[in-house]
Amino acid sequence: MVNHMGRDLSLETDWNGLYIDGERREAADGETIAVEDPSTRERIAEVPNATRADVDDAYEAAAAAQAEWADAPPARRQEVIEQFSAALRRHREEVIDLLAHEVGGSRTMGETSIQIASDHAGEAATLPRRMKGEHVDSNIPGKENVVQRNPKGVVTVISPWNFPLNLSMRAVAPAIAAGNAVVLKPSTNSPITGGLLFAELFEETDLPDGLINVVTGRGSDIGDRVAGHPHSDVVAFTGSTEVGRRVSGIAGENLAIPAMELGGNNAHVVTGDADLDRAIDGAVFGSFVHQGQVCISINRHIVHESVYDEYVERLTARAEELPVGSAHDDDTVVGPIIDESQRDEMLGYVEGTIEAGATLETGGHTVDIDGVDDSLVVAPTVLSDVTPDMPAACNEHFGPIAPVIPFSDVDEAVEIANDTEYGLSGSVHAGDVGTGMAIADRIETGNVHVNDQPINDEAHVPFSGIGASGVGTYNSDAFLSEITEAKWISLQHEPREYPF
Predict the structure, then answer these.
(1) Does the pTM of the predicted model rise above 0.85?
(2) Is the per-residue pLDDT at 167 higher than 90?
(3) Which one of the listed residues 295, 394, 396, 482 is annotated catalytic?
(4) I need a surface site. Which of 19, 197, 217, 228 has the fewest CB within 10 A?
(5) What is the mean pLDDT of residues 63-90?
(6) Cα 346 to Cα 217, 314, 366, 429, distances in angstroms
């Protein structure tokens, strides 16, 4: 392993290079894409805008390198992931700073991203020794059945901009650990922390060339080619349901396995006998961390009418206390939205909800930052008197917005929670854990958390969505099954009798 201890991985690094077969290079036509800091609205980097030819080269390199890597001993594959994890720890502060500049992540968001990414790398490092086959008895006399578990081949990873580090990591690290090669296509909004950073960190490991390839570029230019490349065996995608439907359809035409985590409309159910202190603590974090730009954040607060007024009053007071501003201020909790289109869409939902009869308790506007034109910071927003059909409640608003919906009994709360096409995450606060569990069991979602909030991810626990929230499962043995395949070999030790 080359000694890269003194390398700089900051904004001063030259990020203008695709990473294909262990080499950095320009896009085939030389075009680039600007990366903008959401806090300052300034251009901070240029990255290549890859072409279809670049994508083809990345897959050719991945396919060529994968066969030998599949035969690498488990200990060697484990060591590479451990080296990657160590590199991430070495560059911890630089990565947190990159997240602040590229996606407007607060210090809390950056630290959380490192923690979750490290957890996924730690879990992935155990996978090579867990890829075990099995011996299965046969109904045929004298036959032995052996079932092997082998890597799929080339795993495509299409990652989002909101938590680019850990949402790339949860697919990239297990795929490589299991003996696959990877082509990573990060979001246009986060090409560094969701993509090119991985190439740099793997440079500090013994991973052979060709096993990690990073192509940056606009989805409109290369998205379909990435999703449907003939060399792609698995497509791991995290993003909106609308785009996910297209990606999974294209992948399906190529008979690639889709692993899709898509949108959510997550409910935070609070009963009349809940501990309001705990419920509101969870509500504040679950609604406002990273400006609500989390697929598993709270989208709807469903609160019993007996505590509704107190809940709204206390949630509003807490929202108004949150430090708001630039992500480069260590005290900031609520920073900028990623771009104008996201900001304008969420503010449109707020405006439409007020027009439909809801009450704006606080927020609903942008917050000025000194020296910045057209600020992307949206004030923490609380809406009361909300009904389930109002825009901020029936859509995934993906912002620092807390619509609060009243209910009269548990049956109504469950009905409201389930009145959505999505089923990603959720949370319940009730009088005791048993009551909370009973309610959680009735909520139709892939994940639900009692006496907590919906934003949870542990690498050793399966993570999936139902309905319009996705297909396939991430984490642990569940994702290992997605990126490997079973091969049945039978051994006929004795002559077999046939009917003719």
Answers:
(1) yes
(2) yes
(3) 295
(4) 228
(5) 98
(6) 26, 23, 11, 27
